[in-house]
């Protein structure tokens, strides 16, 4: 059987193109399963997975839980807000206590960049990064590229612009790695203050004018302004940001071609995207959410196949 070149999914940076294509091929099979009347397979009946969320989440958390249930894995859920982390327990102690209850895999969202890799080097379980601070969100990037492939037939050769708060976005970095490995051209667009200075080293184009960026692209991935990660003001006001970088129906209709519109969620309607764009047939936002379950099933299934059963 084909398998991944990695034992953990801590980021897209250390995946090969073959890894990503294998995840997509496996997700194709699981997408067929989750559209059947009985949406479940018995593949992981002997596997226990802990979902550890040290940060808020709606889509990622529910999507992982559903993916695990569809694969018949046993799951336990942990939320930092109601745990003994509040009493001063360390990350490693918390996880090792959970693992001593015979857990095979950990899905973790954590506010600190590098937390998933740190954990993967210290505990005896497969680790999946469900978002680590401003660093990476690998399963989001995989489901985003999978959704582009589904809508446009291929990712290779496509032009994708990521618009908004690139500086604070783990989605942007994982998408840049994933899209480039699959042969897409990537541009970032936003105010100078929200584009990191090192971005040129990643081989992406930079454009500060939204209209020009949209004329260039086949796909626009609109990101939320991450106010919760901003310690200082990066632009005068949300209203001014929205006037310069918000995607409206008028802008979309003024373009010379029909582009695909994406958003990882949660959406701030009326800021980075208007409601009529988010709900238009050019937007694949809910397809992204649906594909997330199949893609996460694929990742969990492929990593679980590397667990040595006694
Ligand atoms: N896209 C995403 O990561 O959403 P959540 O924060 O709701 O999981």
Question: Ranges with pLDDT <50 over ≥5 residues?
Answer: none
Strand line-up of the largest beta sheet: 7-6-5-8-9
Rg measurement, Å: 19 Å
Distinct ligands: phosphoric acid mono(formamide)ester
Helix content: 25-40%
- Number of distinct helices: 11
Strand content: 5-15%
Taken in chain order, the helices and strands follow as HEHEHEHEHEHEEHEHHEHH
How many β strands by DSSP? Answer: 9
How far the N terminus sits from the C terminus, by CA atoms, comes to 20 Å
Mean pLDDT: 94
Main sheet summary: 5 strands, parallel
Q: Categorize the overall geometry.
A: globular
Structural class: alpha/beta
How would you sum up this structure, described in words?
Helices cover 38% and strands 15% of the residues. The protein is α/β, with parallel strands linked by helices. A five-stranded parallel beta sheet has the order 7-6-5-8-9. The longest helix is centred in the last third of the chain and has 20 residues. The protein starts with 16 loop residues before the first helix and ends in a 6-residue tail after the last helix. The mean pLDDT is 94.
Summarize the structure in short.
With 310 residues, this protein is of the alpha/beta class. The protein contains eleven helices and nine strands. Phosphoric acid mono(formamide)ester is lined by residues 57-61, 131, 137, 140, 264-266.
List the helices and strands and how they pair.
Elements: H1 17-34, E1 48-53, H2 59-70, E2 74-79, H3 91-99, E3 105-110, H4 115-120, E4 126-132, H5 138-152, E5 159-163, H6 170-181, E6 185-189, E7 205-207, H7 210-216, E8 219-222, H8 238-245, H9 249-254, E9 260-262, H10 275-278, H11 285-304
Parallel strand pairs: 1-2, 1-3, 3-4, 5-6, 5-8, 6-7, 8-9
The chain binds phosphoric acid mono(formamide)ester.
């Amino acid at each position: 059987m084909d398998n991944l070149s990695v034992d953990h999914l801590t980021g897209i940076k250390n995946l090969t193109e073959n890894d990503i294509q294998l995840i997509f091929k496996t997700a194709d099979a699981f997408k067929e399963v989750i559209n059947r009347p009985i949406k479940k397979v018995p593949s992981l009946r002997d596997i226990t997975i802990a979902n550890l969320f040290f940060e808020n989440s709606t889509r990622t958390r529910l999507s992982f839980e559903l993916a695990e249930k569809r694969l018949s894995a046993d799951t336990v859920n942990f939320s930092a807000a109601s745990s003994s982390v509040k009493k001063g327990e360390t990350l490693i102690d918390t996880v090792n206590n959970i693992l001593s209850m015979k857990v095979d895999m950990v899905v973790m969202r954590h506010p600190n960049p590098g937390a998933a890799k740190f954990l993967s080097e210290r505990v005896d379980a497969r680790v999946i990064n469900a978002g680590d601070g401003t660093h990476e969100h690998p399963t989001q990037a995989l489901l985003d590229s999978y959704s582009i492939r589904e809508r446009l037939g291929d990712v290779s050769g496509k032009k994708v612009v990521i618009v908004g708060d690139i500086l604070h976005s783990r989605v942007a970095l994982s998408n840049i790695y994933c899209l480039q490995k699959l042969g897409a051209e990537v541009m970032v667009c936003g105010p100078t203050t929200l584009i990191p200075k090192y971005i040129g080293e990643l081989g992406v184009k930079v454009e500060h004018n939204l209209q020009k960026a949209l004329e260039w692209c086949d796909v626009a991935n609109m990101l939320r302004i991450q106010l919760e990660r901003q310690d200082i003001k990066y632009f005068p006001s949300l209203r001014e940001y929205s006037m310069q970088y918000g995607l409206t129906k008028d802008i979309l209709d003024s373009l010379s071609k029909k582009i695909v519109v994406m958003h990882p969620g949660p959406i701030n309607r009326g800021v980075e995207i208007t409601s009529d764009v988010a709900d238009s047939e050019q937007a694949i936002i809910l397809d992204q959410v649906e594909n997330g379950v199949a893609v996460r099933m694929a990742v969990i299934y492929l990593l679980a196949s590397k667990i040595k059963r006694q």
